Amino acid sequence: MPALAASTRTRPATTYDCILLAGFGGPEGQDDVIPFLRNVTAGRGVPDERLEEVSHHYRHFGGVSPINQQNRDLKAALEGEIASRGLGLPVYWGNRFWAPYFADALRELHADGHRKVLVLVTTAFSSYSGCRAYREDLATALDEAGLTGELELDKIRQYFDHPGFVEPNVDAVRAGLRELEAAGKGEAPHVMFATHSIPSSAADASGPRETLPDGTPVPAGGGEEWHAGGGWYAAQQRAVSALIMERIADEFPDVPWSLVYQSRSGDPSVPWLEPDINLAIEALPESVTGLVVSPVGFVSDHMEVAWDLDNEALETAEGRGLPMVRVPTVGVDPAFVSGLIDLVEERHVTNAGDVPRARPALTEIGPWQDVCPTDCCLGRTAKPTIASAG
């Protein structure tokens, strides 16, 4: 693969005042579920009756999404790693769709005297929903908080092929295959790497526009006349999945694997990335003796992992008598937490003249960009964002 312009879009290391951990957010009780779903679907005209229909997985868990507690745990783990390195960077936490909201977190850190903020988003891959939407919502939150021009927000690069993200996933898949083997089901295993499905149009628009994942230039005009097979979003996921399988080939050679999608929503007439994990499980050959599912597209065992994989996908596997092992996400794995602070140290130096940490990348794609072109992962409309440049 040719060198990407993304790898050249870096910003010089500087000294930051604090870190903002940017999450999605989730309800923390039954009374929160519909208000939370209203936030997520704002502007789409979805009635409460429809929201109640899709709330069942939250209701099943008492209206509590695990994601907020997982981010509290991640924040605490990051603070511990920062303290061990003597970096002196406080960590704040804000969400897009539930308390603590971005605007509240920005007001808090501003009141504490901070002005230069390094944002760490809890998504590893490039897409509108996984990167640009966060950057847009942070720009909106600055306005809402009355802090535009008062705070400088920079964002840590997408970290899909950083060692801190890859290595825990390698360990998890290896452990899953060992579990099948120990149960006598490892003769002919299959590994599925699961990630969030997104509309095909959004997938094709993911990442920078100067080149397609195969290295060819984006056709003039882009738009509906070309299809990039999932754009950079899918290309990054395929590259990381292939790398994980390469890393375990010493112990588990020639194990077949596939990239599958989950959690699609919205108008069923709109094309989304496929195959759906449940259909993919049903289509597996009868010769497969066991299935390992790795939620590689996620960084924590949140609601869509707990429901779509641990309930629906497991039920599908059980329905065809196929043993399934769902391995964990990176969560607060020490290697992942350490890797996130390594990413911080690519951008943050304590003193002027200090040498920043190197920028490792384990696939041919990375290291990814610190700043995004204005048309990168573009949604329906171009909105103001943080961490972008023409």
TrEMBL record:
Q: Which residues bind Fe(2+)?
A: H196, E304
Q: What does this protein do?
A: Involved in coproporphyrin-dependent heme b biosynthesis. Catalyzes the insertion of ferrous iron into coproporphyrin III to form Fe-coproporphyrin III.
* Record-listed Fe-coproporphyrin III binding positions: S65, Y134
- Where do the segments described as Disordered lie? 200-227
Gene name for this UniProt entry:
cpfC
Look up the domain of life of the source: Bacteria
Q: Which organism is it from?
A: Demequina muriae
Q: What keywords are assigned to this protein?
A: Cytoplasm, Heme biosynthesis, Iron, Lyase, Metal-binding, Porphyrin biosynthesis
Per its record, how is this protein called by name?
Coproporphyrin III ferrochelatase
